Amino acid sequence: MSDQRAELAALVVSSEQLSWQERALCAQTDPEAFFPEKGGSTREAKRVCLSCEVRSECLEYALAHDERFGIWGGLSERERRRLKRRTA
Fold it and tell me: Domain 4Fe-4S Wbl-type spans what residues (predicted)?
């Protein structure tokens, strides 16, 4: 029974850690803007990110989980890679 409690506790903690996603402005907009095709514009997604209250949490999540696609925290995958190299 203690294994089940530990699993449940992990799920609760996990959902609390991701609660920022519910407040993200991107959740209220077209997701395709945040995952443009190669060569597509990222301008609209980055504009949304600029005024988003959870931008830092979003970027932190993307860096921690090695998100390789899309705009996260106002940065493209290339920009996140560059940021990781500078801070390493």
Answer: 25-82
